[in-house]
Design goal:
By secondary structure, this protein is an alpha+beta fold. It has three helices and two strands. It has a two-stranded antiparallel ribbon with strand order 1-2. A hairpin with a 2-residue loop joins strand 1 and strand 2. Helix 1 crosses helix 3. The radius of gyration is 12 Å and the shape is globular. The two termini are 22 Å apart.
Amino acid sequence: MDQAGPVSRSVRLNGFATCLRLEVVYWRILERIAQANGCSVSAVLSYVDREVHLRHGGVRNFSGLVRVICVAWLQDAPDTH
């Protein structure tokens, strides 16, 4: 249950400060994604934000999108993750 608790963090998305509230488990997955890509969590989130705006004009539920991306990354990740 420790990983189920929500945590709010201030992040910068393409230069804009915002607050993102995700469960601990998703923050941990984002840290793994960032580490695998040699960047910060904010850089990963900025990339997602930029891509969703370029491809779809934005998204109503960014937190939900981030959760889906985390699960998709785990599903596609080689056993080395």
